């Protein structure tokens, strides 16, 4: 098996550039909301208007609530184009974006976006004018009420060919020299630093050991997905899923490990969750290790890694896995 240095060389990455601690690398501090969402602050326009956004590696969409939005969810921070001297009008029809438990609809705008002490000029994004909210007490994990928008970090935009994703614009405008961004997500909800998004490299202070490099699948790069192959998934030594390998996507906006219904149901039966996918808190340390084999290396998740506390006042935890019908 190739060493970390050899593997990175094979995919055209400069290891020293990635691993060196560079105080000048632009970064965004992230806030951890109950291990469900990690959001950071950006500013748009001149003068600057502040927003809390989720940075989403699975999407290329960039939107924030518009001043024209009347839904109570939009009551925190809303973009007002009339206040910005750097606003540019973009002629477009209404655009609708669908998510798990809500939809946003709006119009395109362009303005200077300030993120991680970088000023991205003439960045196009969606002003979300209408919000269709499908949140109830059973879907509170969607947590849309904690943020004001989403910034997609996937290449190739999905809602309009004229829109260049913000990270691509950073590269084109010479704001970031390396096509690298990295996430540090802290599971400790009481920590001062909930996480970190770093543009142009990574911060060795946020991790231990060496990186394992896994190629992005070329058959999906034309759609901009950060997709790769899982060699197999094992529970103890006797139960194996994804035996012939399977595809996976990195999604920094999702708090769950999502997989095919049949496989996730098998895992939940193995760890003996109830019908809602929950286990008693006292059983967490007794749960089996789930091993994800990636790039020839095993990554072990214990019960503390794949179980998320439902409430600080309850004795139940929820399995951080969800079954869905998947097609490629």
From TrEMBL:
It comes from the Eukaryota. Disulfide bonds join 69-74, 242-246. Residues 38-328 form the Peptidase A1 domain. One of its GO terms (molecular function) is aspartic-type endopeptidase activity. GO terms for biological process: proteolysis. Keywords: Aspartyl protease, Disulfide bond, Hydrolase, Protease. The active site is at 56, 251. Belongs to the peptidase A1 family. This is Lysosomal aspartic protease. It comes from Camponotus floridanus (Florida carpenter ant).
């Amino acid at each position: 098996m190739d060493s970390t240095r050899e593997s990175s060389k094979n995919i055209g990455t400069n290891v020293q550039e990635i691993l060196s601690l560079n105080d000048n690398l632009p970064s965004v501090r992230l806030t951890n909301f109950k291990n469900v969402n990690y959001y950071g602050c950006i500013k748009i326009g001149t003068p600057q208007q502040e927003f809390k956004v989720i940075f989403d590696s699975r999407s290329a969409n960039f939107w924030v609530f518009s001043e024209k939005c009347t839904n109570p969810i939009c009551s925190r921070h809303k973009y007002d184009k009339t206040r910005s001297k750097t606003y540019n009008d973009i002629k477009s029809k209404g655009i609708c974006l669908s998510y798990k438990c809500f939809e946003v609809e709006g119009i395109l705008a362009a303005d200077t976006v300030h993120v991680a002490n970088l000023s991205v000029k003439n960045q196009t994004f969606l002003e979300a004018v209408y919000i269709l909210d499908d949140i109830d007490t059973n879907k509170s994990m969607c947590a849309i009420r904690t943020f004001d928008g989403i910034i997609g970090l996937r290449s190739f935009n999905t809602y309009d060919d004229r829109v260049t994703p913000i990270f691509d614009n950073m590269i084109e405008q010479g704001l970031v020299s390396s096509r690298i961004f990295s996430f540090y997500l802290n599971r400790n909800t009481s920590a001062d630093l909930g996480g970190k998004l770093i543009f142009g490299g990574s911060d060795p202070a946020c991790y231990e050991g060496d990186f394992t490099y896994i190629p992005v699948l070329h058959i999906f790069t034309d759609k901009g997905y950060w997709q790769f192959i899982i060699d197999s998934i094992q529970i103890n030594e006797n139960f194996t899923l994804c035996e012939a390998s399977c595809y996976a996507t990195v999604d920094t906006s999702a708090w769950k490990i999502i997989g095919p219904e049949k496989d996730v149901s098998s895992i939940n039966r193995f760890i003996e969750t109830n019908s809602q996918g929950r286990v008693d808190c006292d059983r967490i340390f007794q749960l089996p290790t789930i091993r994800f084999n990636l790039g020839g290396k095993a990554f072990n998740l214990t019960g503390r890694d794949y179980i998320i506390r439902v409430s600080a006042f309850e004795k139940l935890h929820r399995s951080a896995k969800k079954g869905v019908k998947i097609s490629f």
